Amino acid sequence: MRPLVVKFGGSLLDCAPSLVPILAAAPRPILVVPGGGPFADVVRTLDPAPDAAHWMAIAGMEQVGLYLATLGLPGTDVLRVPDVPSVLLPYRLLRDRDPLPHSWRVSSDTLAAWCAAGLGCDLLLAKSVDGIVVGGRLLETVTAAVETDAVDPCLVPFALDRGVGARIVNARAPGRLARALRDEPVPGTRIDPSLFVGRA
Known about the structure:
There is one protein chain. Helices cover about 35% and strands about 20% of the residues. A hairpin with a 2-residue loop joins strand 6 and strand 7. The longest helix is centred in the N-terminal third of the chain and has 21 residues, at about 50-70. By secondary structure, the protein is α/β, with parallel strands linked by helices.
């Protein structure tokens, strides 16, 4: 199976001891991009200026990544497909490249999609929600920008424009993360850029 970038939602931090072994046993090369979790929430509460907030939130992602590393995922600060499942420690990389706007509209969701685009990989967003829900209905496939709070506002347009196939999966539901890593059918939402009419 193809290599995969996996965004590990910060809301899953309490589940990390049980989820990291699943990631570590993935049947394909994966690079895990951590969310900021409670560290990013503190930054939101402090409400500093946008530039400071951006780097403080990325430092929060680094803290979550360091925690995941203590649970068994080797840490790396290099954007590459690893030989073994590894977690990205993103602060130095993003300081060097600074690829995205400094705004709360861009979170670790879109940063993970940027990593996937750079590596030519698909993206799996492991979260605490089933996917994108509109009008009370779970969308199986998204091919255009949509209003949602399941992901940050820039993620869907970025993935569609950059050709990043993405899948949102509820990692709290037993068995779903493992099945998704094997590319088996699970409930969730797919972002499918192949059907996006806005792409050149």
